[in-house]
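Pipeline run #58 for the internal structure catalog. This entry was flagged by the ingest filter as a single-chain record with no existing model, so it goes straight to prediction. Upstream metadata was stripped on purpose; only the residue string is passed forward. Reviewer on rotation: M.T. Logging verbosity set to normal.
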Amino acid sequence: MIDSVGRSKANCKIQWMLFAILLAVALPVALLLPSALVAQPPFPKAFLSIAIDDRANINLWTELADDCAAHGFTTTFALDTQNASQEDWAAMRTRVAKGHEIAAHTKNHVPLVTEGVLHLRYYRPQTKSAIARVDSATEKLSAFIDNKDTPALLLPLVQSGPYASLGRLVDGINNVAGFSAELIDPYYRNIRSEFLSSGDDIDILFKAGFTPLFINQKRQARYELLASKQEIEKNIPGYVCKTVVYPFLRQDADIRSIAREFGYACGRTGSSGNLVTGAGNAYDPFKIWAQRPKVLFGEPGAPNFTERIQAFLEDLKRNNGAGCIYSHGPEEFTNEQWRLLLKILSKDPEIRISNIGNMAHSIMAKPPSAAHSASMP
């Protein structure tokens, strides 16, 4: 005869066996449930990214990145790679490990869309003709005066030579008697001279005024976009650079196509870019809108500074917007001013703030129910 204590132990043992069987059956079933049945965080009404442009401003960015991390935000640093030091790369690796993003900003920080890049002219009394010629096959710039066979100007455009950049080339031209040259835009100085467009002979006689020379934009863009991406990925092991920030906000269909070809997933431009998300292809991730904070909100500390931020956020949410707020150095927006802005932004839970790449990915992967086709006023 089994006493009451024995029966109790037997019942407990049976109950534990039943529980174990139930758990063994229920757990796999739960794991197989469709993800739609699992609670998901609400899709935000709008998106916003925060970025700092240019390697020269890395100290501003590292402090901003750390300030953003305190609010759970991630940032983007638009890097022109040419002069990045080992110390710079170490600082970037530390922040990338915490979710921040390094975007390609070309290697030499040069515009990817240009018109003429330099003006060229020859002047000597009694001269009847002056013809310039760019030969991309031999990588030379030459000029012939009065139909003579021997060039009066012959400068190599090779990268191993003294005239590797347009800035150096202009200096070299100006050192030859009778010739004068000038950059059309000072930001063209670091464009590689090998990208000058070859073609027909160019009349550079003074009577024609200063004659523009052009570059092959596709060749330049392919070099700048690929070289910067490769350098970022080489110096940050395991990292894949998916975002390009177009220098000087200049881009066109050819530039966007090249960016896609090289594996970029999105590109940021300026105020002419996309701000409103929509269904299908309405939002082009290679034309992401961006603007500087003082243009949007005025001076920090002004009486209406907070109100202007809140009004912007309400417009953004009302239209399911997505864009970027960016600056260059502290002369545009200091770390202290960024902290004031972050404090206000952090109070709106309906806007997701992240780096540009994550923002673009979320927009393109959003559920159909979140699509919206309204436009910002």
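catalog note: The mean pLDDT is 89.
catalog note: The radius of gyration is 29 Å.
status: ready for reviewer M.T.
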